[in-house]
Amino acid sequence: MKTLIEPFKIKSVESIPITNAADREKFLINSFYNPFFLRSEHITIDMLTDSGTTAMSAKQWAGIIDGDEAYAGSRSYYKFEDAVRDITGFDHIIPTHQGRAAERILFSILGGEHKVIPNNTHFDTTRGNIEFTKATAIDLPTDIGIKPDVIADFKGNMDIDKLREAIERVGRKSIPLCMLTITNNSGGGQPVSMQNIRETKQLLNEYGIPLFLDSCRFAENAYFIKIREKGYENKSIKEICREMFSYADGTTMSAKKDGLSNTGGFIATNNERLAEKIKTILIITEGFITYGGLARRDLEALAQGFKEVVDENYLKYRIGQVQYLGDKLLAAGVPLLVPTGGHAIYLDAKRFAPHIRPEFFPGQSIANEVYKAGGIRSVEIGSVMFGRKDEFGRHIAPPMELVRFAVPRRVYTKSHIDYVAEAIIEVYESREKLRGMKIVWEAEFLRHFTAKFEYLQQK
Ligand code: F0G
After folding, report:
1. Quick one: which atom of ligand 1 is closest to the CA of 379?
2. pLDDT exceeds cutoff 80 at 373
3. pLDDT exceeds 70 at position 1
4. Of ligand 1's atoms, which has the minimum distance to the CA of residue 101?
5. Residue 362 Cβ contacting ligand 1 at under 6 Å
6. Is the pLDDT of residue 285 over 60?
7. Among the atoms of ligand 1, which is closest to the Cα of residue 255?
8. H or E, element range at 388
9. Domains observed in the chain
10. CA 115, CA 110: separation in Å to the nearest integer?
11. Cα of 152 from ligand 1 centre, angstroms
């Protein structure tokens, strides 16, 4: 059979709001044209993120009821620890309430002034946590990784030559660790090959620099390795995961993605001294080492989630659903980052709205218009999220201007996806009407979450 079906049936439903265009216009005004301020009761299809938005399975909900809420030594923690160790192989597994808590703890130990942390591409909170310690976060994607229209298998890869050059330039002592984000979220949900993980590790070994994976979407990455990288076609997803993690000295993970749960995260490492330092900070700021800021029932849901996420039938459907949306848009000529990645489609705002310069936020304008068209929420990943100003106040744009439509796991059906495609295509067909925007208020860090926008005055 060729038809790709959801490998589950629906046991419990939640109705979604249906709004009209006039109301949506008002909701946007009240939200300062920043979709982060929209209320979810005004959103029909929410593609803001795939994080913490998963539909949990009946077995996970059963685990929630069965969770052992002991403060210390909870049975649920040990189930979680076993499940994570089974996939990652790490000795020390330290839960946190979400990914950025793991990042904050790690970088408060290893970051600091004059330190430099390379990554294929830092996610916004990772960069934020590094910069908050006054360290420098550098992105080293490959040249094709920042070309939205070039098709290649592993556009999430680290540029090994640039990494060597960076280490030589800043000096080994300034680099406490190197990160590799799998899949590369800010780079389009693109996978990193096993070869690239191995080569990154080999290079870092020459200098004695530890490698940490930012592994929120490890199972999606493993699936891409299975279907695209020679030698892995007959390996199980779990075997591929074990090999990926075997090259790393540790990992931070937001389990809100491939943990198939609504909250959670962890840090894992084989370095005992580092683990001790992490646990000390954990106890001060998150909670005891067997719950890390989570309810123990959440650990129970995660333990089950990690079992379900490495199921190949699930991953085939998951990656297939994202590709289905991408293919529909491409067939209508909509410019996308290609090939479609693991968890989202990314509109290429530079080609979608070439008449709006990056400093006037073409992606933000598109995100607003798609909400107006169909009540669909997306997020800009471009000059709003990563733009900077130089010393003269001139805009420095990131390499790509994207609008991400993230697909929550196991939540939306094929007709929901058809509806999203229809709305995006409608906006694309009248794209000349899109107008540039300006920021009228912004916070010092991670401005995209709370920035307020206005449209530019028309001449
Ligand atoms: N690293 C990556 C690659 C991420 O995508 C995220 C979160 C984090 C770290 C932080 O994890 O949210 O649990 O604190 N990404 C979400 C997103 C928010 O929408 O892509 P968190």
Report:
1. 19
2. yes
3. yes
4. 14
5. no
6. yes
7. 13
8. strand 388-389
9. 21-50+311-455 (3.90.1150.10), 58-308 (3.40.640.10)
10. 8
11. 24
